[in-house]
Amino acid sequence: MAAKDDKVVEDISKVMKNPQGGKAFAQRLQVQESDLDRIGQTYMQGNKEATQDQVDKYKKKFMLYDLDHSGDINLEELRLMMEKLGQPKTHVELKKMIAQVDKSGSGTIDYMEFLEMMLGKSDNSILKKILMFEEMGKEKEKPTGLPPKKSISDLP
Question: CB of 101 within 8 A of CB of 130?
């Protein structure tokens, strides 16, 4: 775990030294995305009910909330996520939410634990319920442009 943390610190220091670090940032995102794809494939091998579309959807959501692109959602990232969703929580509540999901005891939510929470059979996670509620609350896209023309035979 220390090697992973050292890599993150090294990446962050590179970005801090180079304010025009767009390429470095894009490369870091590509590395994270390929790591998450590999973890997603591993998850799908063990869980036959999961579809590629579901895993891809949760990969995007995980990358959105993993602000430092470390591969884990830590306490601070979870706090920011909950505030973004309009559900601010106390420090103790956030720690309980992480403890419900964190099977490795790292104090963070890694991608495999995130997938198990979102796609698993268990419904006892508060975080899962909040994220599901957030998905349901999103307004469906309304069609744009002119409505299709109808003929007389289409009328009731």
Answer: no
Instruction: Scan for tokens 């969703």, then name that residue.
Output: 85
pTM score > 0.90 for this model? no
| The two structure tokens encoding residue 78 | 């979870």
CA dihedral 113, 115, 118, 120 (to 10 degrees): -80
The pLDDT tens digits for 79-123 are: 988 888 888 889 999 998 888 888 888 999 999 988 888 887 766
- Paired with 109 in beta bridges are 73
**DSSP assignment letter at 19:** T
Residue spans of alpha helices (H) in 2-152:
2-17, 22-46, 52-65, 75-84, 91-101, 111-119, 126-137
Cα 3 to Cα 24: distance, rounded to the nearest angstrom: 19
Nearest to 65 by CA among 137, 27, 14, 118: 118
